[in-house]
Amino acid sequence: MPKMKSHRGAAKRFKLTGSGLVKHYPSNKHHKNTHKKENRIRALKRNLVLSKSFQKNIREILPH
Fold first, then answer.
1. Mean pLDDT per 10-residue section of the chain, whose length is 64 residues
2. Strand order across the beta sheet in which 14-16 lies
3. pTM above 0.90, yes or no
4. Cα–Cα dist 64/58, whole Å
5. Residue 63 pLDDT
6. With contact defined as beta carbons under 8 Å apart, do 6 and 62 qualify?
7. 8-61 maps to which CATH number?
8. Please, which residues bridge with residue 28 across strands?
9. Angle at 17 between CA 58 and CA 10, to 5 degrees
10. Is 51 strand, coil or helix?
């Protein structure tokens, strides 16, 4: 039986926590930030946890 491989695009964007939750880095932070409020940019710095419905999909393509 062949090895199970991780989806490489998903592996670069999502991380599994020790408790099994899926973290991701939010979008809209990389450029064109001059018109965005400082509070919004600060809030986009932290990693967010995906909702349960999306976590199920990501765990299927990230077996390791």
1. 92 92 90 92 90 92 87
2. 14-16, 22-24, 48-49
3. no
4. 11
5. 87
6. yes
7. 4.10.410.60
8. none
9. 30
10. coil
